[in-house]
Amino acid sequence: MRILLNSICVLILAGSLAAAQTTAAKVTPGKPAASPAAGDAAVNLPTEATVDSFLQQTFGYQPDLTWRISGIRPAGVAGLAEVTVVLATQQGQQLSRFYVAPDGEHALTGDIIPFGARPFDPAMKILEKGITGPQRGPKDAPVIIVEFGDLQCPACKRAQPEIEALVAAEPNARFVFQNFPLGQVHNWAVKAADYADCVGRASSDAFWKFIAKTYETQSDITAENVDEKLTAIADGAGVKGADIAACAAKPETKAHVDASIELGKAVDVTSTPTLFINGRKVASFDPQMKELYKSLVEFAAKQPK
C-alpha cells in the first residue's frame, strides 16, 4: 500500500497515472466540514463537497479506486487544513492525507516535518510522558525505539522480523510497542489491540509471543473468528486466553487503547508501522532499508541528551 500512497501523491502533484492502477467511487457530497476549534478560526476548511469534487476530477478516470473522506480539520500549522481520505483498490486500503492552502486553491502532499536545532526533541518529550505499552531493554537506555503498530496490518507483519533484528542489534536500546489500530481500514484491528493490551499487562514475555503469532496467522483471522483465534493465541503465548478475552471486553481496556491511539496522533502517526528513534519519525518502515535504520539507531545513541 506504500506504492499506492506514493502513486496517489504523484497523481495529485503531477496528474500522471504513474504506477497507480486505481479510480474513483463517490461519497455523498455537500456535507459541511466540522467547525474549527477555538484558536483555529482563521483556517478556511473546505467542505466535503469540494473535497469530493477535487478527488473526482483528479481520479475520476480510474474505475478501480474508491475513497471515503474521513476527516477535514485544522492542520496544526497556521492556515492549513488537513484532509484525510481512506483510499481503496483491490490491493487493500490506505489512510492518506493532504493539506489545503489558505487560498483554497492549492493542495500540498507529503509530511509536515519538524524543524529546529533539535527537531526531534518535542516528539521525544511527548513520547516519554505518554508511552505505556510493553517494553524491553534498559530503562536508562540512550535510545528509545517506539513502534506504533496494527496487528491486522500486512506491512506491520512484513516489517516485524526486521524491527526485531534492529532492536536485537542495539542491546542498549529500549523498545516500546504502542497499539495503533487502523479501525477505519482493518475490521478486526481494534479487537486485536484490546487483546494485545490485556496480554501486555498480564505478561511482557507473553506479549511478544502473542504479537508474533498474531502476525504469523494474520491471514487466517477474520472479523467473525477473531475472538476464537486471539483467545487461542493468548493461551499459546502463556497466559489464560479466557481471562484475556474477558479483559479485552472491559471499558478500561478500550480506554488504554484509545490513549495509545491519541498518543500516536499527538506525534503525527497516520500509518503503520511507524517507528520513532529518539523522537525521529520513521514512517512506512521498509525492510529493505534496514541498514539505514541501523545507522539512525547508532547515530541517536551518540547524541547528547
Write the layout of secondary structure elements.
Blueprint: H1 2-14, H2 48-59, E1 66-74, E2 81-89, E3 92-100, E4 107-108, H3 121-130, E5 135-136, E6 143-149, H4 154-168, E7 173-179, H5 189-202, H6 204-216, H7 226-237, H8 241-248, H9 251-266, E8 274-277, E9 280-282, H10 290-302
Parallel strand pairs: 6-7
Antiparallel strand pairs: 1-2, 2-3, 3-4, 5-7, 6-8, 8-9
Helix pairs in contact: 5-6, 5-7, 5-8, 5-9, 6-7, 7-8
InterPro entries: Thiol:disulfide_interchange, Thioredoxin-like_fold, Thioredoxin-like_sf, Thioredoxin_domain
Protein name: DSBA oxidoreductase
Keywords: Signal
- Report the CATH architecture of the largest domain: 3-Layer(aba) Sandwich
Radius of gyration: 20 Å
Strand order of the largest sheet: 5-7-6-8-9
Strand content: 15-25%
Q: How much is the average pLDDT?
A: 84
DSSP helix fraction:
40-55%
Order of helices and strands: HHEEEEHEEHEHHHHHEEH
**Count of structural domains:** 2
The N- and C-terminal alpha carbons lie at a distance of 36 Å
CATH class of the largest domain: Alpha Beta
CATH topology of the largest domain: Glutaredoxin
DSSP E strands, number: 9
